[in-house]
């Protein structure tokens, strides 16, 4: 009775999801990564921040280059003159002026420190963009493998449902002929109902994983290509110290912390420059025209003044209310902070690299153990089936063996994907991850039209098929 009630629900959900997802050709990991690189908002934000940093670095050059300004003005003065024994008279004095002036810094240590900071800040922006790119590679791969793992899980649940349904029919036939009790039938029915519920959950999980992948790559119904069969995983890494040394030499986070320390040191130089003089060269040419004379002359004769000037301006700060001294103390403390951040970053990178290394080695060992467990579970299921047929095993033994086999296969598929993702995460942990690291994984995908490429939720993909 339960089977007649739950099975149509599962079939209806399957039909709804299938109708909402028109078939599309399968895409490779690199194809979907490139789509994510052009669409993902987080990465685009990092790219825009990098472009802004380039422009900001160019701005710092302004403190070392000359500044030139053009000025012009026109004014009109109404003047009343009072003369003894004559009376008063009014006159209008217009004035027109124009000029061009240039200033070239000759000695400004604060400006030079700002320019040196801009070069370090550009390196920081480059490191941040590299980290964003590496993060996108891992996120795209994670979403890619999540969909494949969900497809495998759904396919295995449906395979388990078919096997349980067959066992249920077998138990009913035995009960009808009197060779089995009603308990066998009810146990098989209960296990079947449970598997139907698991199928609904697995189908829902697959749709959620597909939505996440679609949102990341900016496509509708993205269809990742499964792995080719048999699955060939890369060998586990060796020599963890070499991975750690690579991380210490060139991890983007360490580079970023190093440049931040250099920026903080230059900030100290800028603060100390508050005690130092500045020297600028100035060059100007100004024209002043007074058609009716000036306000200090009684003559109405026009006056035109053309003035060219060149010189240097020296400024020496003497006292600023102890602001400069306290600014130096502040920047020295911030430099110590940056030095501590650099040391903490080195330690964190080393720890993350070792953790990723150990996780990958453990994952590779788990795959081998699960492959052996799959073969053992298959043998146990065959033995229990034979024992049930000859009467030395009961139906629940067969059902438990089926559940163990399919659970082992799901765990094995997930472990294989975790190993592939773990290789990328290890390279991300030590800072060497790049788009080229996706090539070996992409090469291990199934070719169009092969068994792996044609896998669907009704058929396990290559990752669920044991090479044993």
Q: Your description of this structure?
A:
The protein has 468 residues and is of the alpha+beta class. The protein has a single domain (2-15, 42-64, 108-277, 316-464), classed as Outer membrane efflux proteins (OEP). It is 63% helix and 14% strand. The chain has a 4-stranded antiparallel beta sheet, with no helix packed on it. Strand 1 and strand 2 (87-107) form a beta hairpin. Helix 4 (109-177) runs antiparallel to helix 9 and helix 7 (252-272) packs antiparallel against helix 8.
Main features:
alpha+beta; Outer membrane efflux proteins (OEP); 10 helices; 4 strands; disordered N terminus
Q: Main sheet, how many strands, which sense, barrel?
A: 4 strands, antiparallel
Helix count, per DSSP? 10
Number of domains: 1
- Total strands: the figure is 4
CA-based gyration radius = 39 Å
- What is the CATH architecture annotation? Up-down Bundle
Share of β-strand residues = 5-15%
What is the terminal separation in angstroms?
A: 39 Å
What gross morphology would you assign?
A: elongated
CATH class: Mainly Alpha
CATH homologous superfamily placement: Outer membrane efflux proteins (OEP)
| N-to-C series of helices and strands | HHHEEHHHHEEHHH
What is the SS-derived class?
alpha+beta
